[in-house]
Amino acid sequence: MKPMKISEAVVRRLPVYLQVLNDLNARDVQTVSSQELGNRLDLNPAQIRKDLAYFGDFGRKGIGYDVTYLIEKIRQILKLDQPLNVALVGAGNLGRALCNYNTYLKDNMKITAVFDVHPSMIGSAINGLTVLPMDKLKETIVARNIRIGIITVPAVEAQHVADQFVDAGVDGILNFAPTILRVQDQVRIHYANFTTELMSLAYYLDEEGEEDHHEPDLD
Amino acid sequence: MKPMKISEAVVRRLPVYLQVLNDLNARDVQTVSSQELGNRLDLNPAQIRKDLAYFGDFGRKGIGYDVTYLIEKIRQILKLDQPLNVALVGAGNLGRALCNYNTYLKDNMKITAVFDVHPSMIGSAINGLTVLPMDKLKETIVARNIRIGIITVPAVEAQHVADQFVDAGVDGILNFAPTILRVQDQVRIHYANFTTELMSLAYYLDEEGEEDHHEPDLD
DNA sequence: TAGATTGTTAATCGATTAACAATC
DNA sequence: TAGATTGTTAATCGATTAACAATC
């Protein structure tokens, strides 16, 4: 257990490594080098080695990394080797889509409670879960040991939901609403906002065209 | 038109500035300082000023930034002042949720075509759009001047869909499938993967607890 | 004028990359 | 042994922040 501070950039790359490793594993690849991983991810091999070395000596000089072993190790680092209960507020289109994605069962992360403010929603079932009213939020989160809250309500309601999550004692929030949330420092917030993503993508349209995009006619 | 290279970090902050500015605008705030924006976003005011100064002199010394003017300018920078047509492949739960989010009409970005491989889906309507078969993809993208493709299919199909998007001539792809895509360099790919987001969030659980989280009993 | 706040330069900080001894 | 590849140190690169003259 090294007391070294790991940068957020490193932590964000770990799930991506895991993604590629799972893919290699599914194709029965036994061993992979940082070079090979770098190719697949458009990342510098030295960076990958350095990232992994923060957490231990997972590779073998002259050989590379054992795929299944590295998967196991990264899963441990990300705490995916133990169950993680998640609650979701907002049983609209997006919320329901996420609930149905409980494919990530294999990663031990599971949405175990769904809430909504709308009386018409309450009591309906989504992928085996009954939608609960907001006044059951705190007791459910405590009783089911829920650590993370997902917010899929409209932007105007998001802060209010966040406050209730924090009050109920969650440690992290994943916010899909297009708004900034203010919470106590010890609660971590990640944003998953596709509008933002789409906007930054829009910036780059034609951007490369300004350099040398004079397509030679190939007829 | 300065020939300066803008870093990706800067571009990714612009939509977030826009979010906050729209919020201020909705509450009839006329003017905002970098200090105030920094407070709301947990960002250094100097960074905000520097980010904006890459694109022009939008502020007034001693006063701050005019909210509506800055919104207009950022929208121009992100090319949100002109229509941007988007196509989506994968009319499952998530795909339908995104189509129904065409709230972002006000930003001129609009999903104008939806495709799916499953015959059972084809012909059905989602938020006014008819789901089309994949063999109509290229002609539709060309005909409707679609610049961006959204992928909401399972991971194993994602690369194939990406190839078709690239072949049809899109400039950017927003990929929701949990897999890395390989495309020609001039096509830009952004990833919107909540599993990844959830995993990196999981890493931080209890992390702050190791520092000094000895909650003083307050009874 | 005094106070506030920008745009920008210089200083600092941190992250990425190159290079290489260790070793499989 | 020769070739490959790690883990790690040092060098480089780039991004963030501090500081301040300009000016509203």
UniProtKB/TrEMBL annotation, chains A, B:
Specify which residues bind NAD(+) according to the UniProt entry for this protein.
Answer: 90-95
> Which organism does this record belong to?
Paenibacillus glycinis
Q: Which domain of life is it from?
A: Bacteria
Q: Where in or outside the cell? A: Cytoplasm
Q: Which HAMAP family match?
A: Rex
Gene designation: rex
Classification via InterPro entries: CoA-bd (IPR003781), NAD(P)-bd_dom_sf (IPR036291), Rex_actinobacterial-type (IPR058236), Rex_DNA-bd_C_dom (IPR009718), Tscrpt_rep_Rex (IPR022876), WH-like_DNA-bd_sf (IPR036388), WH_DNA-bd_sf (IPR036390)
This protein's assembly is summarised as: Homodimer.
According to its UniProt entry, the function of this protein is described as: Modulates transcription in response to changes in cellular NADH/NAD(+) redox state.
DNA-binding region of this protein: 16-55
Q: Which UniProt keywords apply?
A: Cytoplasm, DNA-binding, NAD, Repressor, Transcription, Transcription regulation
Q: Which residues form the CoA-binding domain?
A: 80-180
- The name this protein carries in UniProt is Redox-sensing transcriptional repressor Rex
